[in-house]
Amino acid sequence: MTYEAVIGLEVHAQLQTATKIFCGCSTSFGAPPNANVCPVCLGFPGVLPVLNRAAVDLAIRAALALGCRINDTSIFARKNYFYPDLPKGYQISQYEQPLASEGLVELPGPEGPRRVRITRVHMEEDAGKSLHEGFVDSDRKTYVDYNRAGTPLIEIVSEPDLRSAGDAAAFFEHLRGVLVWLGVNDGNMEEGSLRCDANVSVRPAGTEALGTKAEVKNLNSFRFLQKALEYEIARQIDVLLEGGRVKQETRLFDSATGHTVSMRSKEEAHDYRYFPDPDLPAVVVDAARVEAIRAEMPELPAARRQRFVGSYGLPEYDAGQLTQTRALSDFFESAVGAGAPPKAASNWMMGELARLLKESSRDIADSPVSPGQLASLIALIDNGTISGAIAKGVFEKMMASGRSAGAIVAAEGLTQIDDESQIVAMIAEVLAKNGDAVSGYRAGKTATFGFLVGQVMKAAAGKANPKRVNDLLKRALETT
Ligand SMILES: [Zn+2]
Prior knowledge:
By secondary structure, the protein is α+β, with helices and mostly antiparallel strands. Helix content is 40%, strand content 19%. The chain is built from 15 helices and 16 strands. The strands form 4 sheets. Strands 2-6-7-10-1-11-12-13-14 form a 9-stranded mixed β-sheet. Strands 5-4-15 form a 3-stranded antiparallel β-sheet, with no helix packed on it. It has a two-stranded antiparallel ribbon with strand order 3-16. The structure holds zinc ion.
């Protein structure tokens, strides 16, 4: 019997606000432990939470991009459990009435878009962080840093519409791309601002009923998500093939072994005793607010990709690459706006620019070459001032110095040699020095032609117009 996997994700994304969700403490990462805390986020008795309006706006922005309906009334609830990094003894989350519901994401793929339904997007506060290592008495004690307690999060819950570990990783990556594009989340998975839990079950292929699911918690990279699911799917299939039953439980992924291990079973699962938080009024979002947020949203990656194909005639592949980030696609549009032919701009960006940025560990936003400077370089090639080969060297110098192409070409005398008499003289010299190659060519060894072209280009320090060299060399070999 063959089995298929059924996977749904719960993605936690930190909202990029300056302050926490229910108090004015900073959300900045990397402050000394317990520097960004106050009585509210430390859960002192008698304090009252006040909802951060900017957090709600960002959550709405994300929910709209995921095709969700924004609910006009949503309720904050207390999710009760005891844990040292949760000083109030409960987490403020949304339960029965979330901020947004019923979205849809189209995941681009080689066989057309795959549809993943979004069940809900709700808001909640993050917990603090337990520190189990790094202190002299870490063998006996756990320390707690509450800087993260009260950081605003959205949880995005998908329907179980994913069918493979690879699809799940692609979906998570797609969500990250959209959230970063929107400015909702910084995408920094190492710092924990984006993480995911996966619900996975298996069932005989072609059947409808869902198998018993396991939840794999706290995956903070696409690769870990994929590895954890690959392992977990194989494990569940093995259990069934051996006549056993999959247990409903929560599991953790051990990145060192690549295995998932049981954390707690359903019997041990928390009963969170959710109830509406009496300290917080219902969140009421009217249609005007939703429309105002929608009107301010940037063009989304999928729409921009289509526009790049439609308006600029770019191949699908190029359009996909250039819309990986908003900064990259903005750079491209600026270069085209400055007069660069779209395909040439795309080639330079995906080729030399990407390579040199990677070498210097820089992001497109910090590129020393501006879109306008790239357009000017391409113009120098197109109008014959410099050859393509010389242009690569010029571009490297532009990246290293931030100077313009024109300045580098003028200062270093790199202007292309197009003058017929000059090229003919160089050809004559090369032919005189390479008698063997010349006679070889005339005896039918046409491969020596490329060698001779190379010699002429060398003599011209790469500056001769290659097409002109080709034509004139052919003429010289046929007539002399
Ligand atoms: Zn605080």
